[in-house]
Each structure stands twice: as structure tokens, then as C-alpha cells.
Amino acid sequence: MAWLGLLHPAIDLAISYAEAYCPGATIPTSRAMHWLKLRATASLSAKAKRTYLLQLLPEVEGQILVRDHPYWKRMWTFQEFYIPKKNPVCRCGQLEFDYTTFDESFAPLVSSFWELQRH
After folding, report:
1. Which of 15, 53, 61, 86 could disulfide-link to 10, CB 3.0 to 4.6 Å?
2. 31: helix, coil or strand?
3. Which strand (E) or helix (H) includes residue 101?
4. In this structure, are strands 2-3 and 95-98 parallel, antiparallel, or unpaired?
5. Phi/psi of residue 69, nearest 5 degrees
6. Which of 117, 84, 104 is nearest to 14 (CA)?
7. Is residue 67 over pLDDT 80?
8. What pLDDT does residue 92 have?
9. Which residue, among 104, 116, 107, 117, has the nearest Cα to 25 in the 3D structure?
């Protein structure tokens, strides 16, 4: 388990975004519903699109905070995190999350952002 310190609000948003766009998720969590509703309404009006894009900014900050955490710069991180056969788990404050799911949410985030920018 990777201990990434206390939970920052932007990290919380990033994790809820990952829950919304997790491959194979069948029932979205209540936290994930926030993103699914925003995304669904983003195509309805310019204001809704702007709201969605502005919500993505702190989510991106959360992605950066997790990815740039000092934990990843330690020598033993590879052994602790990448060698075990189970999906790596991270913990921020009381919140635990699957790093693989978190990592896989980055591509949909980028494509969602650029897709909305084009329209």
C-alpha cells in the first residue's frame, strides 16, 4: 500500500472521477455520479460545458498531486508497488483507491477535455 499522506480535496475529486470512468464498473458510486451528471449535461449548453470544464481543473490538480507525490521517487517503491501480483492500492487520509483504476482514468480525462474544447 502506498501512503500518500492526508486527503487533499483535489485528490478526492480525481479519485471520484476515476470511479466514474473505471473500466468494468457496473454500478457507479454516489461520488462518481457527480461526474457522470456533469458530463451528460455538458453538451446541453455552453454554461453546462463551462461548468464541466472548470470542474476538471481541480481534478487534474488531483491527478498531478498523486502522480508527483514524493512516494514515487523512493528507491523501494518499485519493490513495494510494482512487483506484487495484486493491483496496487494507495491511501490518502481515510480513502483507499486502486492505483490501476486511477491511472486508467487519465486517458478518458484528456480525451473528454479535448472533445469538449472542439465543440
Report:
1. 61
2. helix
3. helix 99-104
4. unpaired
5. -65, 145
6. 104
7. yes
8. 93
9. 104
Residue 24 grid cell: 468494468
Whose cell is 501512503? That residue is 3
List the Cα angle 65/102/73 in 5-degree steps.
Answer: 45
Question: Which residues does 31 contact at the CB level (< 8 Å), separation at least 6?
Answer: 15, 16, 19, 20
Domain assignments of the chain as residue spans, ordered by start: 2-118
Give tens-digit pLDDT for 18-56: 888 876 666 778 888 888 898 889 888 989 988 988 888
- Rounded CA gap, 87 and 83, in Å? 10
H or E element in which residue 94 lies: none
Length of the chain: 119
Q: How far apart are CA 10 and CA 26, in angstroms?
A: 25
